[in-house]
């Protein structure tokens, strides 16, 4: 039990004392580590880079769609207003609303 506390203390000291990445580039005694091959590492890096690229592309597409939606909503509102005016003019002999005098 005391050994477990010492190992935990060593790992926590490592993580708390140094916030820069260089200090995290070593293994504390008793710390769990995983060994991977160079090919596995390359595959991991490649998949991560691909995911970041796909996320950036999706965000860019989202912003383009948002801009297009905003433009189309404004166009719809303008056309509705124009249609309302045209309907009021067609009914010039009959009062269609309070704003049409």
Q: What's the count of strands?
A: 0
Please give the radius of gyration in angstroms.
Answer: 33 Å
Main sheet attributes: strand count, strand direction, barrel closure? none
Which stretches are poorly predicted, pLDDT < 50 over at least 5 residues? none
Series of H and E elements? HH
Q: What would you call the structural class?
A: mainly alpha
The structural domain count equals 2
Overall residue-averaged pLDDT value: 79
Fraction of residues in β-strands: under 5%
Helix segment tally: 2
The quaternary state of the protein chains shown equals single chain
Helix content: 55-70%
Shape: elongated
Rounded to the nearest angstrom, the distance between the terminal CA atoms is 90 Å
Question: What's the quick description here?
Answer:
This protein is mainly alpha-helical and 101 residues long. The protein has two helices and no strands.
Question: Could you explain how this protein is built, in words?
Answer:
It is a single chain. With 101 residues, the protein is mostly helical. The chain folds into two domains: 1-33, no CATH class; 35-94. 68% of the residues lie in helices and 0% in strands. It is elongated, with a radius of gyration of 33 Å. It starts with a helix and ends in an 11-residue tail after the last helix.
Helix-strand layout with pairing:
Blueprint: H1 2-17, H2 38-90
Q: What keyword list fits this structure?
A:
single chain, 101 residues, mainly alpha, 2 domains, 2 helices, 68% helix
